[in-house]
């Protein structure tokens, strides 16, 4: 299976199909890269593309798509509801299989440098790749949006990590950074009492004292007459699914409530699941390379 | 990741390196097939080859290796400690990913037919592919070994499934069949009392009334001063690892003993592990295609 890097760039075009296809084609063209999905939102006027593959090839696809976007999208004319600052607004790189967070960070710097130098676009490193704490959060980087970037780039604390200190009028500014894969994980409770789901969510989420890499919200599932702890696990390597699941079960018991099921929404890295097996079966010394499927394309 | 079939043929040559390499080369040569391992035993005078890949290509590799073995191995001169009946003694086909047991059976019949017709070798279908219950067990098919096969093939109940009713003097007889992947799974207990491991093994293994597809043995791990329930899980789709693990934990508690860990030895199909995660996290409606790694080479 070899090393897999995921890339989920966001482009500031969600209406013109020709432009969208031309950008996505740049991903399709690259060998050893697999386009998983792309979806456009007309109100946001924005397209999100998802692809995975061999890390260096993924970088090539990301650069080519970014180059194409810089040629076909004119930010001076862009209108859309979603905050944005560039034709290629943001390029997250996500380590999936057999690569470290550090390696993904290194790749993001390589990509950012190339975009800055070859396309003459100011690039901010964000999230795990950020060069300073105030640059970790994408929303803070993007504050002021495209229209405010010419001024922002002149501020010392907002000097770009790569590329010129001046706005690229047509292509704007791009953020590049490594982040961990996000796992959407929901746990269902056999009660219709929303306050219980809310209390448990508060107990498990990092922002209110719970697990650092867990975001949680209590919601109602009206058609089933139950409530749910709806979560985004933003780094399963540090806050594993099983630990949060067990804690929710404990907290639920306190209210005389049971966990009746869980849901994993969308794509999930294999290791997020294998980690659970190893925990519950108390597996000693398991090596991923023992998984047959991991051997086929190594 | 696409569909994966595994093949683990056994050849009656474990000493002559040139012959062994020539046979293994037939596997190496085939595209979309990955050679995982091959190991020879001089006393047994036998080589076991393990490879996986796209099902039709795996069949091609198996046939070519079998053909090469029929050309280079002369069974009239074979001496070895392991029971054997042919140059290619046995070819197990094992469904690993995105293929059913039924499909693996179908593949085994296709391969057996081709070996019988093109190489003029009598072929018995065994295990899940067996054409009658008395032919399921390989040991029963092989009873009498190469030297007894000329006579055995004449018996009505031992007529071959494919190929001639007469022994192929040089290449002998070959068994082909589908079987499920075997998972070697051990559970460690915090006691040095072997009788407890033996009692628990008896409780969980199919042959003494336990789980149908579990073989179990109580053994001592002297260097750790503990005992172990050592198991072969011969069909994890029907007897899942988590069910046996939970039962062992329950039985152990009865004797005031705890499970301190488990071991998965050698290769394991991803699904045998994912099934455990789905069980313990009570995951509703999970689809394998949600696993990112499964998407890359689909």
TrEMBL record, chains A, B:
Q: Which InterPro entries match?
A: Formiminotransferase_C, Formiminotransferase_C_sf, Formiminotransferase_cat, Formiminotransferase_N, Formiminotransferase_N_sf, FormiminoTrfase_cat_dom_sf, FTCD
Where is it found, in Gene Ontology cellular component terms? cytoplasm
Give, as in the UniProt entry, the pathway in which the protein acts.
Amino-acid degradation; L-histidine degradation into L-glutamate; L-glutamate from N-formimidoyl-L-glutamate (transferase route): step 1/1
Q: Give the location in the cell.
A: Cytoplasm
Domain Formiminotransferase C-terminal subdomain stretches: 181-295
A GO biological process of this protein is: L-histidine metabolic process
Q: Name one GO molecular function term.
A: folic acid binding
Is Transferase a UniProt keyword of this protein? yes
What keywords does the record list, in alphabetical order? Answer: Cytoplasm, Folate-binding, Histidine metabolism, Transferase
What name does the UniProt record give this protein? glutamate formimidoyltransferase
| Gene designation per UniProt | ftcD
């Amino acid at each position: 299976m070899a090393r897999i890097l995921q890339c989920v760039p966001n482009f500031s075009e969600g209406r013109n199909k020709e432009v969208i296809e031309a950008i996505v084609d740049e991903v399709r063209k690259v060998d050893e890269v697999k386009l998983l999905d792309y979806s456009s939102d007309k109100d946001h006027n924005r397209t999100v593309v998802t692809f995975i593959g061999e890390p260096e090839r993924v970088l090539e696809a990301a650069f080519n798509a970014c180059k194409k976007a810089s040629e076909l999208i004119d930010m001076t004319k862009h209108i859309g509801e979603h905050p944005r600052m560039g034709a290629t607004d943001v390029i997250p790189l996500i380590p999936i299989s057999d690569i470290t967070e550090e390696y993904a960070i290194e790749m993001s710097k390589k990509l950012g440098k190339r975009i800055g130098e070859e396309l003459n676009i100011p690039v901010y490193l964000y999230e795990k790749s950020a060069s300073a704490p105030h640059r970790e959060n994408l929303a803070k980087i993007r504050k002021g949006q495209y229209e405010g970037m010419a001024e922002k780039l002149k501020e010392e604390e907002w000097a770009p990590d790569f590329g010129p200190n001046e706005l690229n009028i047509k292509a704007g500014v791009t953020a590049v950074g490594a982040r961990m894969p996000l796992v959407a994980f929901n746990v269902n409770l056999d009660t219709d009492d929303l306050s219980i789901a809310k209390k448990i969510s508060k107990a498990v989420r990092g922002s209110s004292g719970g697990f650092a890499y867990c975001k949680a919200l209590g919601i109602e599932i009206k058609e089933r007459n139950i409530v749910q702890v709806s979560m985004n696990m933003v780094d399963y390597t540090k806050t594993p699914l099983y630990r949060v699941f067990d804690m929710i079960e404990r907290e639920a018991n306190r209210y005389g409530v049971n966990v009746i099921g869980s849901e994993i929404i969308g794509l999930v890295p294999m290791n997020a699941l294998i980690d659970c097996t190893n925990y519950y079966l108390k597996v000693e010394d398991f090596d991923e390379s023992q998984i047959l499927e991991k051997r086929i394309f190594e």
